[in-house]
Amino acid sequence: MANIVVQNIERTDLKLVDALGKCGVATVHEAQGRTGLMASHMTPIYAGARVAGNAVTISAAPGDNWMVHVAIEQMQEGDILVLEPTSPCEDGYFGDLLATSAQARGGRGLIINAGVRDVRDLTEMNFPVWSKAVFAQGTVKNTLGSVNVPVVCAGALVNPGDVIVADDDGVCVVQRERAAEVLKKAQEREANEEDKRQKLESGILGLDMYNMRERLEKEGLKYV
Amino acid sequence: MANIVVQNIERTDLKLVDALGKCGVATVHEAQGRTGLMASHMTPIYAGARVAGNAVTISAAPGDNWMVHVAIEQMQEGDILVLEPTSPCEDGYFGDLLATSAQARGGRGLIINAGVRDVRDLTEMNFPVWSKAVFAQGTVKNTLGSVNVPVVCAGALVNPGDVIVADDDGVCVVQRERAAEVLKKAQEREANEEDKRQKLESGILGLDMYNMRERLEKEGLKYV
Amino acid sequence: MANIVVQNIERTDLKLVDALGKCGVATVHEAQGRTGLMASHMTPIYAGARVAGNAVTISAAPGDNWMVHVAIEQMQEGDILVLEPTSPCEDGYFGDLLATSAQARGGRGLIINAGVRDVRDLTEMNFPVWSKAVFAQGTVKNTLGSVNVPVVCAGALVNPGDVIVADDDGVCVVQRERAAEVLKKAQEREANEEDKRQKLESGILGLDMYNMRERLEKEGLKYV
Amino acid sequence: MANIVVQNIERTDLKLVDALGKCGVATVHEAQGRTGLMASHMTPIYAGARVAGNAVTISAAPGDNWMVHVAIEQMQEGDILVLEPTSPCEDGYFGDLLATSAQARGGRGLIINAGVRDVRDLTEMNFPVWSKAVFAQGTVKNTLGSVNVPVVCAGALVNPGDVIVADDDGVCVVQRERAAEVLKKAQEREANEEDKRQKLESGILGLDMYNMRERLEKEGLKYV
Amino acid sequence: MANIVVQNIERTDLKLVDALGKCGVATVHEAQGRTGLMASHMTPIYAGARVAGNAVTISAAPGDNWMVHVAIEQMQEGDILVLEPTSPCEDGYFGDLLATSAQARGGRGLIINAGVRDVRDLTEMNFPVWSKAVFAQGTVKNTLGSVNVPVVCAGALVNPGDVIVADDDGVCVVQRERAAEVLKKAQEREANEEDKRQKLESGILGLDMYNMRERLEKEGLKYV
Amino acid sequence: MANIVVQNIERTDLKLVDALGKCGVATVHEAQGRTGLMASHMTPIYAGARVAGNAVTISAAPGDNWMVHVAIEQMQEGDILVLEPTSPCEDGYFGDLLATSAQARGGRGLIINAGVRDVRDLTEMNFPVWSKAVFAQGTVKNTLGSVNVPVVCAGALVNPGDVIVADDDGVCVVQRERAAEVLKKAQEREANEEDKRQKLESGILGLDMYNMRERLEKEGLKYV
User: Among D15, D22, D31, which residue's Cα sits nearest to residue D175?
Assistant: First the structure.
């Protein structure tokens, strides 16, 4: 693959991004038709983190974080770095210095299907990271990669400028072109959920609220 | 397997259940002769959770949470849901709405050898879950399973009405018929441990407290 | 292998040890030339723990914690236990009683490529543990092992008296003979990092600070 | 758990056992209502092995094969050893000497949720093994376990005298009490499959043979 | 995601496909710039299998093989099925009956990031499969998916009509649009490799053949 | 770590090496006191391979096989390459061209805690490899490492010139200094095993041959 840096990517409006972030991963994932979810091994380095932003993508060689430096120059307010190594790796590509630089450019976090280090500092800096591993192993700066090309990160296709939503439930990618539509569905879903929550809290059963009894009987469920 | 819901299961007295819960997983597991422990991948979604309850068991198809709705109707005060998929799965069978419904019926928590979502909400609701994964992936409601049948969950056999004890150390199942006996042994063990703790704190060595030196020498341990 | 306990090991001066602990795992690992890091599955039982100490090593049979009792007698102020089972195991070799005994002797923590239990108590005791698993499974005391022999723990060679540094980023071993040299380099590195951090915070890019642009161009990176 | 050896177990008639063996794992598993299948990590040490036999079960401490010797005395013509360690382990509990002894008693194979060694010899002896690992690591003979008690092996409940069916697809347990019924269903299934195979071979589609088109349309599948 | 079946996909010419198949996975992967390789857990059910074909893709619910029946109708001479479940699953979606049907339509094999069964029969039929698991676990036919939509399979993006190349080294996807170009580069690479092989066989070192010595020295490699 | 190539290493006499190879991994591992065994994930690329040789060790960056070329120049008749990446990696560092070169220098095989490719060719060349993965992913030649330094490979410490023994049971390292002693014990063990095999074949039980009955009874085993 040619080693390129795409400089002018289209981003999603930050109002949309922020509104998607408020909905959270589970709701957004449902609203998008259950697509875009990264694998469950992508876990946050500290509990309670919630973030949304525009993806600046990185394709990097295993154990080589040179392209992270290149990518940071491409970051704007509201961006999130998304790194997939070209082969499985858990090295610590990213630590507090890079986070300082990313924050200085308005960066909001990192999604990395590899390792991260300086976890204590990143936590204090309130710089959230979802990663495959926490690992102090250092990296080199010898092999080129690419920035802002499409990547498959932890099983999900990410195009630069797509919206990343991440919280305690994991990481979900919203296609830029669909962001407004997905937000609308997510917000409808949320409104709908509040009503259901109240019913369930009052003791109404899902079996009744969703009219499941007839279908269960038809399928052959036996109560003994 | 026929798809059935067993409605009238025998439960363990909640006084026994609560007392077992106070002893904790490590002690109960020892008191029961080191049986009933689930695999170590069953981890709590938040630290510090401790719970005990009567098992309401669910056997469910992969990626299908229909039977969870069925099971919640069977819950009573002090129950804990125990779900094993019929094949390995990490989908998010359970979230805040189902937890709301389970809590409304007196449910105390969930043990699931699969995934869970809405972790932030569940944490705020103080609804503890031990799971194999945190994963926002949604499920369908198309395939029957069974409720309150014996299941092997994360390697441990669970019969409906057995006592589940869960804390930061994992999850242990106590057979209903043995609950009183196990509690007795667990409490004796605890009393005994307090005495040992004080001795060890004062500097007495386990080597001496347990009289190990002679046997070590006999087995051939050499000090050099 | 003969079953032996080496009683008089050389330790590293605690001033050196404590200073290395302050530098943290990522820095020490770099300062030592990126050697000595344990595998990323060695995770702390609670966030925020930081410790450094002299290694008292244990080679133990799977599911057998007899040698832990033997090792505790060998502990001195500032020591850390390092246990590698002779084959992969995740049993709970260690709990609050053993931690009480280790603390009574001045022990600072445990590194175990296996399981640990009583996590709640250990957290309250402020006794940090890095382990492969949290697992309540009990162990026996039937098979000899060795204490204070060289072990390969989670992929890293540890000699008794080596310095163990552990924090949220994992566990790193510093060879005793190199401790002073590694500390010097680590402290230089830290001083250097502070300067870099300020530059990055002010918006200077790594690309410029490290003079990467020319080399990137020479290697063929294309901006499009 | 008390350490016991149950000497007089009821076995399944070898005619039934052999007939189940001919049906193979996939068919038997279906005929039994999709129950009894062990986890997919239980793989054969050589391709092409097929076996069925009565289960002689072993619960053994990690890294301790003492109970294998005890179990071999309990073997009869047509038996298969089924070993589950009391906690996860991959040590080589079993090699060519034990296989020689088991074969001398009419034993047909080994199912072990742990490790095996001397794979070349076992292959030459035509002694099939399904295991979690191939690992030369030796074991000790220091800790008791039990023989012919119910065990959960690789996720499946096995009672002594149950029928074990194993082939390239894995391992399935048939409850002794249901063996005749399961065999009948398995044989019906096989007859039925032959007819289907011929239709499919001739180019008839499953969509038509199983009348799926109407239901697919009703569920909303769109052809574009 | 809407549930659709795309009927008229563009395929790659079978002459190109077959020529790519002869080059093999490692060469094709290199020729394509080291892209398109599936994860290493995708292993063949028998050694020595080599195949290339046009991808007919399937997105299926976990534990539900309904869409496989739908996909087989879409198969033509020279096609290979590529199945990715919508969430991680290792159930046996596919066995000898489906293989019979696929072969009747000219199908050449299956790539499935899940499980397969009837391995012995598939081997005898000479129907190659690369899968994540061998697992007899049966599936249901209750939930829709899609056929011939883009899928991310085992980490690689696959569009319907892309070329799949698979052998003992794994599975590689060649984009349809690039097939001719990749073949050309692969064949050049092969010609080039033959020359290198002869030199190396004669004792010439890679160090000299690739002129590495100067660069190694410049980078600082020390011979001691 | 400084990047060095140690050129004059001491090797073990090939008569010793070959004799150890004949004993096989399980026997040698026992004879050496159950030390030196690599992890069970190190599996052969084809069944039936058996090899022994002197270790030429490689420490290489993840995804970078430059040092393999350097190492091959250091090989002599009877050597085996042993490669450990500096962090976990499964890339295909080695294929048929490198094998051709290694064979031209008298090399006997490769032990690599990473990936290998061209498995079909390597099999035809009769060049055995034990690896963590089969993976076509290519590597670069940008980062230095070291040759003939001590490495921890798959959990076992390997010094250059140590004897590697590998077969279907895995890989074992024999320390050069202990090779003659270990061979002697291994051969005694083999002689001893033949006698045991005949006894077991004749129907004598291990329980009697090893006089286990008394100790089992003393430990409390109950026959019921």
Answer: D31
Partners of residue D150 on adjacent β-strands: none
Model confidence pLDDT, tens digit, residues C62-75: 999 999 999 999 99
Tokens encoding C164? 């163990």
Indicate whether B111 pLDDT > 60: yes
Residues 6+ apart with CB under 8 A from A1: A59, A146, A149, E33, E34, E35
User: Residue B181: phi, psi to the nearest 5?
Assistant: -65, -45
Long-range Cβ pairs for the range B154-159 (8 Å, 24+): B154/B38, B154/B39, B154/B41, B154/B42, B154/B84, B154/B111, B154/B113, B155/B38, B155/B39, B155/D152, B155/D155, B156/B36, B156/B37, B156/B38, B156/B39, B156/D152, B157/D152, B157/D157, B158/B55, B158/B57, B158/B82, B158/B84, B159/B55, B159/B57
For residue B204, give the amino acid letter.
Answer: I
**Predicted local confidence at residue F1, as pLDDT:** 57
Contact F200 D7 (CB under 8 A): no
Tokens standing for residue E41: 């857990």
Q: Which of A67, A137, A148 to mutate to probe the C interface, most C CBs <10 Å? A: A137
In the 8-state DSSP scheme, what is residue C17? H
Residue A63: which of F61, F135, F137 has the nearest Cβ? Answer: F61
Q: Hey, what amino acid is at A89?
A: C
Instruction: Tell me the C-alpha distance between B116 and B122, whole Å.
Output: 10
Burial E39-56 (b: 16+ CB within 10 A, else e): bbbbbbbbeebbbbbbbb
pLDDT band at B1, cuts 50/70/90? low
Per the rule left: phi > 0, alpha: psi between -120 and 50, beta: everything else, B9 is: beta
Q: Tell me whether chains A and D touch (3+ CB pairs under 8 A).
A: no
CB D6 within 8 A of CB D160: yes
Compute chain F's Rg from CA coordinates. Answer: 20
Enter the tokens of residue E52. 């290339």
Phi, psi of A22 (to 5 degrees): -65, -30
Q: Which pair of tokens denotes residue A173?
A: 């990618």
CA–CA gap between residue F172 and residue E116 (Å, rounded): 34
CB contact under 8 A, E73 and D223: no
Tell me if A86 sits within 8 A of A146, measured CB to CB. Answer: no
pTM of the model: 0.97
In angstroms, the Cα distances linking D21 to B169, D14, D40, D151, D212 are 41, 10, 19, 22, 32
Stretch 62-121 of chain C: residues touching chain B, C-beta under 8 Å: 66, 69-70, 72-73, 90, 92, 95-98, 100-101, 103-105, 115, 117-120
Mean pLDDT of D110-136: 98
Cα separation, C35 vs C73, in Å, equals 30
Measure Cα distances from D14 to C29, D11, D136, D161, D196 in Å: 62, 8, 33, 11, 30
- A192–B contact, CB cutoff 8 A: no
Q: How far, in Å, CA of D16 to CA of D164, rounded?
A: 11
pLDDT at B128 over 60: yes
Instruction: Give the ranges where chain E is alpha helix by DSSP (H).
Output: 14-23, 25-31, 66-74, 96-104, 119-124, 179-201, 206-209, 213-219
Q: List b or e across F72-88, with b for residues whose CB sees 16 or more CB atoms inside 10 angstroms.
A: bbbbeebbbbbbbbbbb
Q: Other CB atoms closer than 10 Å to residue B171's CB: what's the count? A: 30
Cα separation of F125 and F103, whole Å?
A: 9
* Mean confidence (pLDDT) of chain A: 97
Give A127-178 as a DSSP string. Answer: --EEEEEE-----B--S--EESS-EEETTEEE-TTPEEEEETTEEEEE-GGG
Dist CA B67 CA B146 (whole Å): 7
pLDDT at E2: 83
Inter-chain CB proximity C157 and F152 less than 8 Å: yes
For residues A158 and A174, give the distance between their C-alpha atoms in angstroms, rounded to a whole number: 8
